[in-house]
Amino acid sequence: MGAVSGWDDPRFPTFRGIIRRGMTVSALREFMLLQGPSKNIVNMDWTVFWAMNKKAIDPIAPRHTAIASDNSVKCFVRKDNLEITPFSETKPKHGKNPSVGEKQVWYGSTIWIEQEDALSFEDEEEITLMNWGNAFVKSKKMSPAGTIVEMGFALHPDGDFKTTKKKITWLSNDQTLVPVTLVDFEFLLTVDKLPATKDKNSQKDEADQAGEPEQPEDDEADVGDEEAGAKEHLKQQKDGVGWTSFLTPKTEFRVDAFADCNAADLKEGDIVQFERKGYFRCDKAAIPGSPAILFNIPTGKTEKPKQGY
After folding, report:
1. What SS3 state is found at 225?
2. 3-state DSSP of 93-131
3. Which contiguous run of DSSP H or E holds residue 221?
């Protein structure tokens, strides 16, 4: 039917599928041990499953920055009305775990921010550029469609980030930005559990419980029942009544973005956190002419997949 790509599809609850989505082996093992030995079939909530995985990846996932490409806003930053000479600083990849490693953070007069953030700013509002400092909104340039195409900021070195309501991510244009595609998924089915279907044996069991006389078996009748069942199955599929009617129409959402220069080192299987966006597993590394593909990792929160980052 083409609803998934294979047994390792990240939407599938197979071992290969959940590992490709971003589940760690250590978290999976812990989850299995917590269930204990049992012969019973138990339906578990996905939120508990992925919340346990978040605890495993949060302390070790390097922090990166990505800006959605669609309608991204070019901004000009000034300090004391002067342009800023581009420079870089070495920062830890994880603010609370130095062992994760270091990265280069670039600063300069030209930066990129997301359209959603730009639209939320008031004139002369003081905002925080994360990992840099505070700045005042000085100018806006709008398009006929109502989107912002350019903005101007004035750095406020003495500003206190605790006093600002809006703290945004940004990327300096003075680095080699890495194209990425961020992918999120919806559940394959629109229900937690498919409705039970009655086969011939279950109907016979119900008749026995009701005290109805058992009908003699008839091979020809069995053949007729199978043919009738096949016709009914085809009719249900045609009418949208079968299990396929419970398939979610759209389950994959892709957003093109560009990430900081350090993302060029990401390899398949690496797990990172894009600040303000979530945790992601690299499914395909970036190569010349092709972006890196990263899958959003659920965290246990019950939220709809992001159709825009």
Report:
1. helix
2. CCCCCHHHCEEEEEECCEEEECHHHHHCCCCCCEEEECC
3. helix 219-239
Separation between Cα atoms, residue 70 and residue 116, nearest integer Å: 10
Number of H helices, E strands in the chain: 6, 16
**Token pair listed for 237:** 């599929």
- pTM equals 0.83
Give the separation between CA 130 and CA 172, rounded to whole angstroms: 12
According to DSSP, the β-strands at 126-129 and 110-113 are unpaired
> pLDDT for 74-132, tens place per residue?
999 999 999 999 999 999 999 999 999 999 999 999 999 999 999 999 999 999 999 99
Phi and psi based region of residue 289 (left: phi greater than 0; alpha: psi -120 to 50; beta: remaining): left
Interatomic CA distance for residues 165 and 153, integer angstroms: 16
Question: What would the two tokens of residue 23 be?
Answer: 């589940």
Q: Which of 199, 197, 203 is nearest to 243 (CA)?
A: 197
At which residue do the structure tokens 């000034």 appear?
78
Burial of 227 (0-12, 13-18, 19+ CB in 10 A): exposed
- Compute the distance between CA of residue 118 and CA of residue 218 in angstroms, rounded to an integer: 74
